[in-house]
Amino acid sequence: MNDQLRIPSNLLPGASSPEWINEGDNTWQLTAATLVGLQSVPGLVILYGSIVKKKWALNSAFMALYAFAAVLVCWVGWCYHMSFGDGLFPFLGWPNVALDQKFLLLPAFEGNFPNATMVYFQFVFAAITMVLVAGALLGRMNFHAWMLFVPLWLTFSYTICAFSIWSPRGWLFKIGLIDYSGGFVVHLSSGVAGFIAAYCVGPRAVKDRERFLPNNIVLMLAGAGLVWMGWSGFNGGDPYTASIDASLAVLNTHVCTAMSLITWLFLDILFFGKPSVIGATQGMITGLVCITPAAGVVQGWVAMIMGMTSGSIPWYTMMVLHKEIRVLKQVDDTMAVFHTHAVAGCIGGILAGFFADPDLCRLFYGGQDSQHYIGLAYGIFTGRPKEGFRQMGVQLLGIAFVLVLNVSITCTVCRLVNVIVPLRLHEDELQVGDDAVHGEVAYALWGDGEKLETTTANEPFSFTFQKNHEWPTVELKSSSEIQLE
């Protein structure tokens, strides 16, 4: 049996771990991956289910949960090797199953741990990217269309970005693009794809667009807190080792996020007079996104600057430009992922190219070409402006590549899915929400459209409720007889 599996002799039952494994690194990598997974399940599941209108709570949460499960099946089925396997093209790897036991127990392409750990770690990044795309589509996308969209977009968009930027065989990796932990691959991709998909699906119902109050802001904060704390694994796990660079990345992540949240909060108070909880949460997200491409290659004071930038520029694009630019006004982006992820991801990618410390880059990238990985500011300061401008050019090229790829692929996938099943829910379903889509509701409370009519004491009163556009009336003799189903 063991001969058939071809497991190395030192991995047979009773054998100790092979010499190439660093147990500390492997433990941290598995921990970091789990922290990132918790950002999606339950982090964004809770956040999405709480920040939307009550009638969409279940559908929104379930879109995130389904995406997490579907991505894992596709990831081990063919997408991992397309993202990190042998090169088929300079931007894509050969599709192959990532469940072969011999492969999983061998060393990963980076780090002192097995492929099984690497497959798991990279999966949670793919999953959260897909969940972020869902944020732009809440409150109107046909769930059956979403079920098809997830594997198609993952296969034809995410794998190309991941291979091009993160795989040692990828063309953008080879020319020295700095994307420490996913500012391009995860956030710029999801922000652009979500925006384009939202345009293809169309807007929410008119009443939902006019009034879309969160059903539970306190619970939303719990989900946001899981996202924030989980980012320690998001950025701290990408050195593939429990190193000093990982420690720096984690600290920079939280410094930038706190500064971004406070900056956004002050702008809300200055221009609107009140400290918005939802606004502060948006500032938290933009800070997390902005620092991601630069977390371990910039100094702490730069993280502060990036936090102020990510708390102000996306605030301006969301609160001012979105209301003035026609293209932005026409797209109903439910969770504003274009501003919080695409805009903030672009800012982080550009600032990484400007502030990347060459000494810190050597810690992260190792003995790579010395002409790569030097921020423009350091290039000018050290008398190497040509190399600094080159780095900025590479960063801008990466942004352009991700934009073009995701606009074209997302449009194509949406059109293909729409041929099979409508992208958008029927208008009647849009009015009802969860009950029409899933036959279930999130809360057993008084629903939309209910009306309680009372009369004088000791007299009968009528209780009317709306369901499926019908108005049956139930006559009750006293309040004690009211029962909500």
UniProtKB/TrEMBL annotation:
Signal peptide from the UniProt entry: none
Location of the Ammonium transporter AmtB-like domain: 28-443
Topology in the lipid bilayer: Multi-pass membrane protein
Family: Belongs to the ammonia transporter channel (TC 1.A.11.2) family.
Chain segments annotated as transmembrane: 28-49, 56-78, 119-138, 145-166, 178-201, 213-231, 251-273, 285-316, 336-356, 396-421
Lineage: Eukaryota, Viridiplantae, Streptophyta, Embryophyta, Tracheophyta
Keywords: Ammonia transport, Cell membrane, Glycoprotein, Membrane, Transmembrane, Transmembrane helix, Transport
UniProt-listed SUPFAM superfamilies: Ammonium transporter
Localization, UniProt: Cell membrane
NCBIfam families associated with the record: amt
Name of protein: Ammonium transporter
GO cellular component assignments: plasma membrane
Stored Pfam families: Ammonium_transp
